[in-house]
Amino acid sequence: MMNKFLSFLLLSFLATPLLQAQKQNSLLWEVKAPNGATSYLFGTNHLVGSDYLKTHEKVDKAFQNSKTVVVEMLVDSTKIMEMTMMGMMPGNSMRNLLDSADYALLTERVQEELGMDMTMLDIMKPVMISTFLSLAMAEESTPDELNYAGAPLDLFFANNGKKQGKEIVPLETMMEQAEILYNSTTIEEQANELMDLLKDEKKADKISTEILEAYVEENLDRMWKLMEEYGSDFAGMDALLDDRNMKWIGKLKPVLDNGNAFIAVGALHLPGKIGLIELLKTEGYKLKPVY
Is this model's pTM higher than 0.90 or not? Predict the structure, then answer.
């Protein structure tokens, strides 16, 4: 889950030429446990559909040959209402949080991007509105190379894996993700980020374009450099990336020791000093990119 504005662009991913990037990096990594068991780690983009697998045989092969599929979370229909309520702020409203000029701008952009009246969203936490707007903006800027049809990759791996009788292992619950999204920053910080997004759309478009290009090229190094360049502009990134990566290692180790696992998480969870690749290497696992 790479939620909020940056998470959709960096999670929901200038670039070097494609051939060079492929020689240097990959979104798919082979993971060898100390006992010799083999699994695969794949960095997803939450906007990419499952038809991606038709043109990326190495990923599809790793998925099909797996016995266990690990994803960030599984949808729990019994928790949807509770999760939705966490995104609300009873007793407060966006109209109260913003001055009249900012509220007018927000109302205009919500109508343009979402086709909705602001009164329908007024008691939602700012981060929830940011998520809706960020997704709409990211979809508009998605290059043709990533316009794959089908279910989002994360959902496809979970649902299709279940149909094939694979064991499906979630790293988090829906409520754990909701807690990170809605409560890792204050309402005021969320409102400031929302308005920053709306007042500097050129910057948002630039970030989106560069990260998506890096994803197309499977260039994790470039994605991480973009994260370092832009991440300081957004609150709560430690909670979205580093903290979760460290928590996930304990859940991943027994799965990797059993082998034949396919792990699919947002691509920005892979690189960096506290990324899954380096954390697993520290635990004694051997990782290498699959070209």
Answer: no
